[in-house]
Write a structure and sequence with these properties.
Length: 280
């Protein structure tokens, strides 16, 4: 419910800012810059919700490791798996607590361990937890040594978390380089639009005649929109690539894409408002 209020607040701020900008300035580069600010103000609450959701998902996977270790200790003491889960119901596992509580409640009303674990995996929406739960379910169905399986699952989850942290630390420099390269790309595009193209447009007809190019075709106005679209496309896909490299998923790249798109919109519209370039 709190997230919904944030979303509506963001939409309200964005719409109010956009209407005010259009009503006051009625066109021009400054109006476009203020519209971008309004758009970002409206989008920020949605991005905050997305980032909080990603954070909660990571916390679930981290707490699942603690839950599995506690489960191993109880099973090792001779308590059946189902009874062990019900005994862990009231322990604090952060964002995973509600899922553990639901799992225990399903077992207490007679649902089979396999079905309850499958529901648990679906509710958490985590591939790591789904794989681990699949192993536990198979071991329980096959009648194997459940204690050994649980220990293997805990070790596997721990290794996955360690590898994820090591990869993130190892590629942190690459992420920084990706942002720096993109910033340089923006600067090059701005120099091209505001410095080089005006010089070409001011060439006399005699100088351009040998190239068989019309001076009017090389005007900054004609190139403004294509350059702007190129920057937006580059922003989106550069963010996706950075997220894939750093965290291994395209979904993680959405936050990087948002940051790069926001930088692109602010820098380009801000430069046009400041330098008085064509609005495109």
């Amino acid at each position: 419910m709190e997230f919904e209020k944030m979303h509506w607040l963001g939409i309200g701020i964005g719409v109010a800012g956009a209407v005010t900008s259009i009503a006051i300035f009625r066109g021009g580069n400054l109006m476009y810059f203020l519209l971008v600010l309004s758009l970002l103000a409206g989008a920020i609450p949605f991005m905050i919700s997305f980032l909080l959701g990603e954070s909660r998902q990571k916390e679930k996977e981290e707490k699942f490791l603690a839950f599995t270790r506690d489960l191993v200790e109880m099973v090792r003491s001779g308590t059946p798996v189902s009874k062990s889960i019900m005994n862990l119901k009231n322990r604090n596992y952060g964002t995973l607590t509600s899922h553990v509580g639901k799992l225990a409640n399903q077992l207490s009303i007679g649902l089979t361990l396999t079905n309850a674990l499958n529901t648990f995996a679906k509710d958490t929406k985590s591939r790591v937890i789904s794989r681990a739960v699949g192993l536990i379910s198979e071991a329980e169905r096959a009648g194997g040594n459940i204690e050994t399986i649980l220990e293997s699952v805990a070790e596997s989850v721990n290794q996955i978390e360690n590898l994820r942290k090591e990869r993130k630390a190892a590629v942190s420099n690459l992420v920084t380089q990706g942002y720096l390269i993109f910033f340089v790309f923006i600067v090059i595009m701005l120099v091209l639009e505001f410095k080089i193209l005006p010089l070409v447009a001011n060439l006399d007809a005699a100088g351009a005649e040998g190239l068989n190019v019309s001076v009017n075709q090389l005007s900054p106005e004609a190139f403004s929109m294509p350059l702007f679209v190129m920057l937006l496309v580059q922003s989106f896909f550069a963010g996706i690539v950075i997220g894939k490299i750093s965290e291994g998923t395209i979904r993680s790249g959405i936050k990087h894409s948002f940051i790069l798109l926001a930088l692109t919109l602010l820098v380009t519209t801000g430069a046009k408002a400041l330098l008085g370039a064509p609005a495109g």
